[in-house]
Amino acid sequence: MMSAQPKKDGSPNKQFFESSETVALFEGVRTWLLKNCKKYVQTDPPTNKSLASLVVQLIQFQEENFGKNVSKPPLTRLPMKCFLDFKPGGALCHILSTIYKYKSEQGWRRFDLQSPSRMDRNVEMFMNVEKALIQNKCLVMPNVFIRSDVEKSVQSKVKEIIKRHQGTVSETEEDVTHVIYPVVDPLDEEYARAVYRRPSHTLLHWYYFPDSHDSWDPIEISTVEPPETLPSVADGKKGGGVWRVTASWALDLDQYNEWMNEEDYEVDETGKKKVHKLRISVDDLMTATGTSAGAASSGAGASTPSVPTDDKAKTKSTKKRKKSPSPQPTPKLGKRKSNRNPPAHTL
Predict the structure, then answer these.
(1) What span, in angstroms and rounded, lies between the C-alpha atoms of 85 and 91?
(2) Would you kindly state where each structural domain of the chain is located, as residue ranges?
(3) pLDDT of residue 241
(4) Which residue has the higher pLDDT, 150 or 234?
């Protein structure tokens, strides 16, 4: 039996990046680099596989140096969607062109993201990447307006968090990217979302975890139809407009040192929680079927979700919040319709 659950941390989904389908996606990125970054890559031209391996190393460096368990991280973690933007001239192209340029300027023969002696320069390299993403409009830092009905103590905390992570706080709703509403309880059946699929795997996003905790699982979800295109940081809010999210979006940012997924916290103009069309409940995951690739590796045809254990059980704000979709120290499903609590099995 397989288990579908959030990853224990924000390490890369190696199986995703090493798959032949993903390696093929790097062809457009490689071609763009050879054309627009020739000066810095011509001495050792990258291959699709070498670029995929390098991206895995970059994501792992973020986890080890900017992750939630790091005390006083020097930089807010770059959004995972930036590393999934394979479009020519997109976020991933600018990430890689920036680090190749930095490597050349430093006179490095190769990248070394594990060496303690290079720690400071590697962090500086990531700072350069963040600047390049912003300059090329591949990353927009949030400009938020906090509504007056948000508790004063929460308002103060949200302001401090947003500013510390290089966002800005506006006194009016004009030209903002986000409007912050009071904290609300999650919907009962919020557990995960299927955000991308291939014939053999589904990319699952887990409610109230950052995108870096998304899992790449060999299962097929029958209750929803996940997109067949990867999520992109450039997508923004579908249909345009302003994100309306609860204060928990900012409070959770501080816990993970990573901008959270707005769709987990989205509310309407009245502050009522929105229902996402790709939302998946525990029951949905229990009825999910393992793909042939998954069955081949696990010897099972069905995928059973487990209730993960994480520090999400901690109080997430100054108000008590029901976190039924989040993991608990003692597994339980709260108000969910299903009372089944199957044992966890490792993929």
Answers:
(1) 6
(2) 14-140
(3) 87
(4) 150
